[in-house]
Amino acid sequence: LLAALLVVLLLDAGCAESQDYYQLLGVSREANTREIRQFKKLALTMHPDKNPNDPEAHERFLKVNQAYEVLKDEDLRKKYDKYGEKGFDDHKRGGQYESWNYYRYDFGIYDDDLEIITLDRGDFGKNGFWHLSSYICLHFHSHRPNYSTIQLQCNSNIYLLYSGLFLLFIFEGKKKPEKFSGDRSKDNLVRFSMQFITTTVTQLWQEGNVFKEIENAFMSGLGWLVTFCFDTGDCLEPRTRQKLAGMLDGLVKVGWMDCSMEMQLCGSFKATSGATAFFPPDFSVNREGSVLVRP
C-alpha cells in the first residue's frame, strides 16, 4: 500500500512538473499571439514582488514565464507542440524575469489597442508598414494619434533596433527598406506611406468598362466597393479610396463613378447623392438597366 501511494505521489509530481504550457497561460492550443500576450495579466497577479510571503511564488512564476517565452516564439512553439518540454531539456527559456513594475508599466502597453500589432523578431521579413518606437522615452508616443502604429517590443528584441528612438521604415518584400525623414506630421507620414500603395482604383463609366470590370471581378469571386460621387453627399476622397484598395486588395475591388458626368449610370444604380455601396459577388448585372440584382 505504501509503495502504491508512493507511485501515485510520484506520478502527480511528474504531472505537475510537465504541466501543459497552454494550460499554464490559460489559453487554447489555437491561441493567437495577442491572446498569448495576455500573460501580462498573470504576471501582475502571480509575480513574486506581489506575493512576498509566498515561498513558492518564485518557482510558480518561473514556470509561467517559461511557458510564455516558448509560446510567444513561433519556432519554439512549433517545437513544443511536437516534442513537449523534452524538446527544451538542453535549452531552458524563461529562467529570468523582469520586475513587477516592468510588467505593469512597460510590458504590452499596446496589447489592448486593436490598431497596434506588437512585433517579435519572427515578424520581420514580411511586407508592411513598420513604425518602430521605443518604450525608453514616452514623449514619442505623442505621435501615435497620427497613424496606426506597429510597435516593436524593444526590451526583449534589443538587437533588432536601429540607432535612434523614433523611426519609420517601409519594408516591401526583399527590397531595401525605405526610411522616412522629415517632419512627422500626419500629412507627411500619410503622403510618404501612400506612395507605396499601388493597387488600382477603377473609375467606372457607362459606355466603357462598367459591365466588363464588374462581371470579371464577380467571376473571380471578388465583390465591388463603389463610391458614387455627386456634388452633395458622402463621396470617398481619392486618398481614402486608395487606402481602401490597398487594405482590401485580393478581397474586393474598389471603384468610383463621377455622377456629375454619368448621371444615367448612377441613376440606374439608384444613387441620387454621394454614397458608397458594397456589392458581393453573388450579384449579377442587368445589362439593360445597369442595375446590380441578386440572381
UniProtKB/TrEMBL annotation:
Q: What name is this protein filed under?
A: J domain-containing protein
One GO MF annotation is: oxidoreductase activity, acting on a sulfur group of donors, disulfide as acceptor
One record GO biological process: IRE1-mediated unfolded protein response
Q: Name one GO cellular component term.
A: endoplasmic reticulum lumen
Instruction: Please state every residue range assigned to the domain named J.
Output: 20-84
What's one Pfam family the UniProt record gives for this protein? DnaJ
Its ancestry begins with: Eukaryota, Metazoa, Chordata, Craniata, Vertebrata
Kindly state which keywords UniProt assigns to this record, in alphabetical order: Signal
Q: Which SUPFAM superfamilies match?
A: Chaperone J-domain (SSF46565)
Q: Does the keyword Signal apply?
A: yes
User: Which domain of life does this protein belong to?
Assistant: Eukaryota
